[in-house]
Automatic annotation (TrEMBL):
InterPro entries: CinA, CinA_KH, MoaB/Mog-like_dom_sf, MoaB/Mog_dom. SMART domains: MoCF_biosynth. This is MoaB/Mog domain-containing protein. CDD domains: cinA. Pfam families: CinA_KH, MoCF_biosynth. Residues 5-157 form the MoaB/Mog domain.
Length: 259
């Protein structure tokens, strides 16, 4: 409905790509059982891995688990031990646990529960003949905790993707392309993308290799490109123009007034 910004898929894609796993599609689905089942049927057997986020809470519009149960013809079974964990967690905070939270301790019989270290809804793992489905909470901190603690360490695409970003300012995209074109065409196993913004143009180098080889290859290519660009380059990767200007002001003992 446009009220929420999906940051989960961006983080997931970045983390998976670091491990050599390429995300080929992203789908946003409303809280509708039939629509969710339709998406599951579409990708089951077509992809090796499907990760969903959201819809595992205790309210009436949290229907993701129900949709998976319908698709996999699975019953729900109360995990008594996990229910006691939830009861105790609420008690320590000085609350009586709402009855609605009981649904979060109900685990599909055809799924494996994945512990949630920072929330109440566990993740779930379903397995079809050819596709693994991970069903995760939509709260970003909970999703990231489950991914970092339990899933990412087990996922490996064989090769890692690395990026190096060259930050430039004071030069337009077309001029960069003209200046760098001959060198870029000679780069091996490094893809170059130009990303214009209001502060300037970022040049993103992407390379794939086993281990740290991709990063080293990207750094080497960045060195060559920066040698051609000169002082229009102000930094790499997470360095911002504001940070560089601030550092220069401090070094020169100067101030800047803005109106």
């Amino acid at each position: 409905n446009g009220f929420s910004v999906d940051t989960n898929s961006v983080w997931l894609a970045q983390e998976l790509l670091k491990r050599g796993i390429t995300v080929v599609t992203k789908v946003s689905v409303g809280d509708d059982l039939d629509a969710i089942e339709e998406v599951l049927a579409r990708w089951d057997g077509q992809l090796e891995l499907v990760i969903t986020t959201g819809g595992l809470g205790p309210t009436h519009d949290d229907v993701t688990k129900t949709a998976f149960c319908r698709y996999f013809n699975s019953e729900l079974q109360l995990d008594e031990d996990y229910w006691e964990v939830l009861v105790e967690r609420f008690r320590k905070r000085g609350y009586d646990i709402p009855a609605s939270n009981r649904s979060q301790a109900e685990i599909p019989t055809r799924a494996e529960a994945i512990p949630n270290p920072v929330g109440t809804a566990p993740g779930l793992k379903f397995q079809s003949d050819t596709t693994t489905f991970y069903v995760l909470p939509g709260v970003p901190t909970e999703m990231k905790a489950i991914m970092s603690d339990h899933l990412l360490p087990t996922l490996d695409g064989g090769e890692a993707v690395s990026w190096v970003t060259i930050r430039t300012t004071g030069i337009i995209e077309s001029a960069l392309v003209t200046r760098l074109g001959p060198l870029v065409s000679r780069l091996k196993d490094v893809q170059v993308a130009y990303l214009p913004a209001y502060t300037g143009v970022d040049i993103r180098l992407r390379s794939v290799a086993v281990g740290e080889g991709g990063r080293e290859r990207g750094e080497s290519a960045a060195d060559e490109l920066e040698a051609l660009l000169g002082d229009v380059v102000y930094g790499r990767d997470d360095i911002t123009l504001e940070r560089v200007v601030g550092q220069l002001l401090v070094e020169r003992q100067e101030t800047l007034a803005l109106a």
